[in-house]
Structure prediction request, 344 residues.
Amino acid sequence: DDAMKHLPLSAAQADIWIAQAIDPASPSLNIAEYVEIHGPVDPALIEESLRRIIAETGALRLRFTTGEDGPRQDIAPLAGWSMPVIDISGEADPREAAERWMRARLAEPFALDAEPLFTFVLFKAAPDRFFWFQRYHHIIMDGMGGASIARRLARTYTALARGEPVDDPEFSGDFGSLLDADIAYRASDGFTRDRDYWTNLLADRPPAPSLASIPPVAAHHFHRETGIIPAEVANRLRQLNGNLGQLITAVTALYLHRLTGAGTMLLGLPAGARLQRPLRRVPGLASNLLPLCLTVGGADTLADLVQQAGREMRAGLRHQRYRHGDLRRDLNLHPRDDFLFATL
Prediction:
């Protein structure tokens, strides 16, 4: 039994814990995705694959408690779990029916003192079409970790279906390594250097420009718009030199500039915050939000702005382990009302 008792929270988890404690009814700390599967699958084999993943992934078996010394977490066996299989093949629009169910789950907050803090569901849209849905409380998982779980599921299922050994050298469920890396970083000179970098950079920071005409506020519901890029445009984007993320960032800054007239843009940049390669294979929470400051001048071309975005992104990513929550405290921002940036 690899159960681990009374572990401290990482700095990232502590920030999430505080955010949920401020607003316990908020579902904003749910993260989720679904994968559309083309072809027949065996639901029992999917469930068996997930049972194996749960058994080897500490983050999926976390239990949280609060004592005199604050919140703690244990890694413990998870008993009685099973994966729901929902047949939506009779629906007029199976995808819409599945997404309606998913949206309802995303609107429900997890209770941090309950278990498990994840949801796995398989939807059957047709004999050869399925949707696999994963949802987590952010305190146990980030986007990089969720992607790792999805890859592990695909490889485990394939091996079991073929009667082959389940062996995935690209996967590690060693959640303790994330905690050890966090403790070591916060006691290192790198932590101090990163703090100095960010506090100096943001000493005279501009107001955060917003797409809305009112300051951002905490909300319990979401509005999503999805647009499909035409194939011709997508192909042209793939041919661009440089990183597509730099282009998207530059265009966002330019759009905000035209909306607000502000010359300096402060945006938020999500980062994996896993500089050590082995940690990139560990499911859990490590991701961070970095400030990204861009200057949009009247004479700049889009190419100039893309290059500037690239420079600033690379500079910030060198200091990506310094937590957003720490930086907010350094800048004396109020936990509920003050936003460092409004657009990610």
Notes: The beta strands are 4-7, 30-38, 62-67, 70-75, 85-87, 118-126, 129-137, 264-271, 288-295. The mean pLDDT is 91. The CA atoms of residues 170 and 281 lie 6 Å apart.
